[in-house]
Design brief:
The N and C termini lie far apart (about 130 Å). Helix 1 packs across helix 3. Among the domains are: about 90 residues, no CATH class; about 90 residues; about 45 residues, no CATH class; about 90 residues, MTH677-like (GMP Synthetase, Chain A, domain 3). It has a five-stranded antiparallel sheet. The chain has a four-stranded antiparallel sheet with strand order 1-2-3-4, with no helix packed on it. It has a three-stranded antiparallel sheet with strand order 10-12-11, covered by helices on one side. By secondary structure, it is an alpha+beta fold.
Length: about 550
């Protein structure tokens, strides 16, 4: 504080100069200072400032100079009071008070003015922001000073040239008017006087100003550097002034941030298996504290190095980030709720992403989703991707995908084959040695039947109405026995689970029998063969037992004539 007061005193002395110091006059009693407000004594007594040693020479000279100035001002004040000059009295009282405060500040090493009359300034946001960004604006102003001066000179030259053309036009017009007047006319003499006293001096002045401005423009243009040189010089100045501070700030931020993340990660690693609400809340708090400490350490670098430009840029940047956070506050709160596992999506539950189900394995700022049935079914998504979504608990036997790699499937479009690859993007189906690729969403739209988990062959067979008496019991039993024996020869012993034949319906042309044959999933590769075999066994049974297979019949009714 005392250094600031010394500087202010020396500045005031320099500005005033020797002429401001009048001859010493008899000292007068100084006016009483404003009353100092006192409060009740407190148990702790104020301590005197420590002894700073001998008085330094600049401070001693400033004190002596201020004492001389105070003596002179007080004498002038007494004289103004005696004259009754109220304006001078008011001005001199203000000067005496200011110089007295400066002297007291240097002598006591305190801000006496603020002690006696505390300044309670009104907070003005606009003024504070202007003070904050002043170094940045000043740097930009200095960087564009030469181009702006050149542009101003060109604009001023153009304006004066326009005035010169106007004045020359006026001179020509007045000369034409003068020449048209009689030689002895008073108007002719007045016109000549107008030319000599108004327009000629104006033109001479404009020409002189233009010569000066053009010379200044030429000097500026010759001194002006090329764009490459300006960029190179600006880059060099930035590296010399703020480049080191910027590199140190980045290094400090990364070091503090990564170091604290490593420490907190090691401390919480043993407890992460629990992942309770308290641990999640602690993780969020530690991450926020880590970020704030890293930012504070980053701002400390330009502050310590007195790099006010970089400090202003950092603060403006942080204000912008804070403003953006305020605008996105609802989303930010929702992200915090998700991280704390109290939002719409929760760990261990089931969520749909692009029409595919995934299990939420971890909720962090980059969350992990997993589908155990898909190749490459691990997704790492940003937390904001989950905002607005909902998850639910999965049922005990609820599948994550209709099939697995290697399963035999039958699609609604009639495609049949083995699944070679299934990922979140595509499913590749092998059909008779060729591969057919489906987008995963399109594959699910085909409602695939997974034959590898067991399947049934259903077929409707018709016999003639001539066998109506045996169509309910005898024929179904015989056909069932024939199908069981024929199918058992085509598959392994444990692959044929069940065969059943029943009368399904009395059709318009035939008696329809319903055949249902159940197979194990291991017989899935022969699904199409087994379908054809059921038809072949039915025809063979009909031939062996004399059952007729009817043709579709059409009955015509003839109208009576």
């Amino acid at each position: 504080m005392h250094r600031l007061l010394v500087a202010r005193a020396l500045l005031a002395i320099t500005c005033c100069g020797p002429s401001a110091v009048a001859a010493p006059r008899p000292p007068q009693e100084p006016p009483e200072p404003p009353p100092i407000r006192t409060t009740a004594p407190t148990p702790t007594q104020p301590q005197a400032p420590p002894d700073a040693g001998p008085l330094d020479v600049p401070t001693q000279q400033a004190l002596e100079r201020l004492a001389t100035m105070l003596s002179s001002l007080r004498a002038e004040l007494d004289a103004a009071v005696a004259r009754g000059d109220q304006a001078a009295v008011t001005r001199l009282k203000a000067d005496v008070s200011r110089r007295s405060w400066e002297f007291a500040g240097l002598a006591s090493r305190l801000d006496v003015q603020n002690f006696e009359a505390p300044r309670e300034g009104k907070f003005e946001l606009q003024r504070e922001v202007e003070e904050l960004v002043r170094p940045l604006l000043q740097t930009l102003k200095d960087a564009t000073e030469e181009p702006r001066q050149v542009a101003d000179l060109k604009a001023e030259i153009e304006r004066l040239e326009q005035r010169q053309r106007t004045a020359e036009s006026a001179v020509h017009a007045v000369e034409r008017t003068r020449d048209r007047l009689p030689a002895d006319s008073p108007a002719r003499a007045e016109a000549q006087r107008e030319i000599d006293q108004r327009w000629r001096p104006t033109l001479d002045g404009l020409r002189s100003d233009l010569l000066v401005l053009r010379a200044r423009l030429l000097a500026k243009t010759q001194q002006q550097k090329s764009l490459l040189e300006s960029i190179s010089q600006s880059t060099q100045n930035f590296v010399q002034s703020s480049g080191t501070s910027l590199l140190l700030s980045v290094a400090v931020f990364l070091g503090v941030f990564l170091g604290l993340r490593f420490v907190t990660g090691r401390l919480l690693r043993r407890r992460r298996a629990e992942r309770g609400f308290s641990l999640r809340l602690l993780e969020v708090a530690l991450q926020a504290v880590t970020l704030l400490v890293a930012i504070a350490a980053t701002l400390a670098v330009p502050y310590v190095r007195n790099d006010w430009l970089l400090l202003a840029v950092c603060i403006v940047f942080l204000i912008g980030i804070g403003w953006a956070l305020v605008k996105t506050l609802p989303q930010f709160v929702e992200q915090i709720r998700l991280v704390l596992n109290i939002g719409g999506v929760r760990e261990g539950e089931r969520i749909l992403v692009d029409g595919l189900p995934y299990r939420v394995d971890a909720l962090r700022f980059y969350s992990r989703l997993h589908n155990p049935e898909l190749d490459g079914g691990n997704l790492r998504v940003p937390l904001q991707f989950l905002i607005g979504k909902r998850s639910r608990r999965s049922a005990g036997d609820e599948p994550w995908f209709p099939c697995r790699t290697g399963d035999i499937v039958l699609l609604a479009d009639g495609q049949f084959g083995k699944v070679r690859t299934q990922t979140p993007d595509v499913v590749v189906l092998e059909h008779y040695g060729t591969e057919r690729t489906y987008p995963t969403a399109a594959f699910l739209e085909q409602t695939p039947r997974n034959l590898s988990r067991g399947f049934a062959i259903r077929s409707t067979l018709g016999i003639d109405y001539a066998h109506q008496q045996d169509a309910v019991v005898a024929i179904p039993a015989q056909l069932q026995q024939a199908l069981r024996e024929g199918l058992a020869d085509a598959v392994a012993v444990d692959e044929l689970k069940h065969v059943r034949v029943e009368l399904a319906a009395a059709g318009s042309s035939s008696l329809d029998l319903q055949v249902i044959a159940l197979f194990a999933g291991s017989a899935a590769p022969r699904y199409l063969q087994l379908e054809r075999l059921v038809q072949a066994l039915f025809v063979a049974a009909c031939n062996q037992n004399g059952w007729r297979i009817p043709f579709p019949q059409l009955t015509l009714h003839r109208a009576a004539e």
